Amino acid sequence: MTIGECEEGDLVEILAIERDSYPTPWSPNLFLSELSNPVSRMLVGKSLESQGIAVVGYIVFWQVADEFQLHNIAVRRDLRRRRIASRLLSHAIRICRPEGVRWVTLEVRRSNRAARNLYENFEFTVKGVRRGYYNDTGEDALIMSADLQQVPVEGLTPKQRRGAKNENIA
Ligand SMILES: CC(C)(COP(=O)(O)OP(=O)(O)OC[C@H]1O[C@@H](n2cnc3c(N)ncnc32)[C@H](O)[C@@H]1OP(=O)(O)O)[C@@H](O)C(=O)NCCC(=O)NCCS
């Protein structure tokens, strides 16, 4: 997978993933406004498939002063659990760290176990709850946060990290 900045031409595929991923997907106009927002960064993962280069996932985050606000991350349904989201998030952290960005914050649906596990692998922790935050289901949002300068950049579980360490020793 290659990871690069999003271009307008990627939006058709991004929108298909978005609509398949969320009960209330972002609109085309919202993605367009992110592309022209100077604090917003959109990274796209692409891979070579039989029909050519295809978008496999994307991440949208804002860099505001020393804060990294994660606004969207999604992976094509048929390609999930292959560490694509982990690699997108790692890439974004690697970009922001040298720029002095410190705090990462995000909101996640309480029921979104996949996303919560992903963030926990990067040692993000729950710092608060917004009750009934999501209009579509009335579900709570958990506010997760971490010190971007301290998080494990590869986003491995503690067990995976121990495995990688043992491999290095052997
Ligand atoms: C959340 C999402 C982005 C994860 O993408 P992904 O590429 O499948 O994630 P990864 O393969 O990098 O998984 C990393 C870790 O996240 C956790 N995880 C991912 N999917 C999971 C699932 N279905 N159930 C439980 N844990 C899961 C696991 O800990 C996983 O590590 P492991 O596979 O080594 O156990 C993807 O499920 C998605 O697009 N969901 C819909 C959009 C969404 O909810 N975005 C988050 C908004 S806050």
Can you describe this structure?
- With 170 residues, the chain is an alpha+beta fold.
- It has one domain: 3-Layer(aba) Sandwich (Aminopeptidase), CATH 3.40.630.
- Helix content is 31%, strand content 33%.
- It contains five helices and seven strands.
- It has helices spanning 11-21, 28-35, 84-96, 113-121, 158-169; strands at 2-5, 40-49, 52-64, 67-75, 103-109, 125-130, 141-147.
- The protein has a seven-stranded mixed sheet with strand order 1-2-3-4-5-7-6, sandwiched between helices.
- Strand 2 (40-49) and strand 3 form a beta hairpin.
- It starts with a strand and ends with a helix.
- 24% of the residues are buried.
- The site of coenzyme A has 20 residues, from strand 4, helix 3 and helix 4.
The CATH architecture = 3-Layer(aba) Sandwich
Q: What CATH first level would be assigned?
A: Alpha Beta
Q: Which overall shape is indicated by the principal axes computed on the Cα atoms?
A: globular
Fraction of residues in helix: 25-40%
Report strand %.
25-35%
Protein structure class: alpha+beta
